Amino acid sequence: xxxxxxxxxxxxxEMLSGLYDEAEVYGVFRPVxxxxxxxxxxxxxxxxxxxxxxxxxxxxPRYILTFSDGKSCExxxxxxxDGILEIEYxxxxxxxxxxxxxxxxxxxxxxxxxxxxxxxxxxxGIRYALHLRDLDMRSLSNxxxxxxxxxxxxxxxxxxxxxxxxxxFLFPAAQSETNMLLNKHWQPNDxxxxxxxxxxxxxxxxxxxxxANDLPTYKLYISPVISDLPRLLNPVIKVLSSSKAFSFKIxxxxxxxxxxxxxxxxxxxxxxxSEAAAAMxxxxxxxxxxxxxxxxxxxxxxxxxxGVDPAxxxxxxxxxxGSWRMRVTDxxxxxxxxxxxxxxxxxxxxxxxxxxxxxxxxxxxAWAAVNVNEKISS
Length: 378
Hints:
single chain; alpha+beta; 2 domains; 7-stranded antiparallel β-sheet; 18 helices; 14 strands; 44% helix; 15% strand; elongated
């Protein structure tokens, strides 16, 4: 049963309000039989519209058939994987995990290529999350989002803060060149009341002009271990200062520096980001990678990776959040809960999760958007 947002209970609304792409949500699909082994399914607007059409017609609407970017296939696949629709395959109707072969053939029969360090790390995060039970979607997504964060006990934190503040640790007075580069090329962003991040805008950039951009925003993640940060910042900021990056941020608390996505630079297009990454990679030999799961690896070590926020994302908000990874972990959490509910074994669960993310436009081999090469070239 399809239920619109305003008809939901408070708990259901709270679950949906935490989604990265909340504006795209119509409501939920709710099981008709409370005794059935089914869970709530998020109903995105496109999926909800198609479902309502099919209540009164046995043919697909014309607008679906005219999609040229594969969107129609993604929408139908989501309905089938969520058990809302069934499709006929080999003489019977199937949905959910039973429909994987009907939808994707042998594409998901083998595990994803995990030769890169970050791909392996991401699969470890999914396997870890599959063992977590009785968590709601938001809690499970948060566990995935913070996966590979380095633990630090209270004693170690107190010792760190007793010796220096985070800002002094990152930018000691002795590193005059780094501070000179910041003062010359970057303007501190003081718009946020809660300083989880130190962030800067390139001098001469118009913040209003950037945030009104209707193009995707490309994010370059720089992820060394915390002990390497003070030495690494000089070559990184030197490259960013001469690049087309319009903003960058770095964690402003010990907890922020212990998370994998501790430093992020922002670019307006793929070409500008890849040029900066190539220049930076040559400067980072000898530094130890930490690694950001659910991002696309760039260099051999995994210290550099990237993601992309879709057009019309509020860049100012993204500087305080992590939109690409949040979108990925939200979809992962929903898929993992479905796999747990259906009591799939690990192999089946991983195939089902990959299919769910693929239908949502996320490639779990490269941890980038599906058909990203086509989108980059366009």
